[in-house]
Design goal:
The strands form 2 sheets. Strands 2, 4, 5, 6, 9, 10 and 11 form a 7-stranded mixed beta sheet that branches. The protein has no helices and 11 strands.
């Protein structure tokens, strides 16, 4: 049974930081594309960052480049999203997504992924 369990969400002031975690099990983690998406009411789900677990190749959306960093701990089958200099527009539900194989150029398309976590809420507000 595939499981993606996110944690680390919360409320923070603008300029603050949070680190999200996604613990994965039940599929071939070591050769997978692991990504973070976010969803805000009234908007389409947005791909934020991805990492290929077989080589730590990463990609980011323009909206978070330079502020967010995705990483992994292969020993724990866990992917992290370090979010710095958070802005109110980063407020969203954040989801971890996974699919076997490389990420490729279409990593930001949610249809690319079979496996999803339940989400963790991030609120950035003064």
């Amino acid at each position: 049974q595939v499981q993606l369990v996110e944690s680390g969400g919360g409320s923070v002031r603008p300029g603050g930081s949070l680190r999200l975690s996604c613990a994965a099990s039940g599929f071939r983690y070591r050769d997978s594309c692991m990504s973070w998406f976010r969803l805000t009411p009234g908007k389409e789900r947005e791909g934020v960052a991805s990492i290929y677990t077989g080589g730590s190749i990463t990609a980011y959306s323009d909206s978070v480049k330079g502020r967010f960093s995705i990483s992994q701990d292969n020993a724990k089958n866990t992917v992290y999203l370090q979010m710095n200099n958070l802005k109110p527009e980063d407020t969203a539900m954040y989801y971890c997504a996974a699919e076997t194989g490389i990420c490729g150029g279409m990593w930001y398309k949610d249809s690319r992924y079979r496996f999803w976590g339940q989400g963790t809420k991030v609120t950035v507000s003064s």
